[in-house]
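Homework help thread (please don't just give me the answer)

Our assignment gives two proteins as sequence + structure token strings and asks us to describe the second one. The first is just a warm-up. Here they are:
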Amino acid sequence: MRYYDADVARKVDLLEAEMRNNPADVRFADAVKLAEAYFGAARVSGSHHVFKTPWVGMPRVNLQREKNGKTNRYQIIQLLEAIGKAKLMRAKDAE
């Protein structure tokens, strides 16, 4: 993770928990905040925000704003899968 402030860490954890509870109702801005906390700034290509991951292939982190200001459910699920994979990789590195 790319944050160091304990207060920011709690907010990121809370945001992640909210997304896990209801991936169908996530604001685009919140999804981008969470992705940036784990993967850094996005490369923007048109309406797509693509985040670089330390692995090749799936899960990809690609977010797109819908007309209602939300993000597609499947993109949130991919983001949460990528966060889980990043956490596992960090845990293995710490051993």
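The one we have to describe:
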Amino acid sequence: MRAFGLLGVVIALCAGLYLYQQNIEEIPEGNPQQQIDTVAIRQRLLTIAQTERQYQATNGKYATLEELAAADLLPGGTEQRGYSYSAEISATGFTITAAPTAADKAEWPTLAVDESMQVEER
């Protein structure tokens, strides 16, 4: 009976270790500040993409970042944490790109999101 209990604990620990390793692989590379900023930029991109989807549902078209800012839907503007945001808009979709503009972030990744709501590194 004890052998089954011990076996259960070992299996649970192995499963936990496997899940931990999978999550570690998703953490962005770089120093802690880069990791923090990259996560913040990813979240900002998803927020802008969600705003685009809501704007499209209300107005029947996607908006430029300037249109979102004019409608008070883009708090914080088009620059944040040393990144600058730009948008490519079409009748059927959008791509929002965040590119590093600060000199100390020149080697950091460029991130982009589209209507699929998937953030990609470029």
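TA reply:
I won't write it for you, but here's a hint about the kind of observation we're looking for: The radius of gyration is 20 Å.
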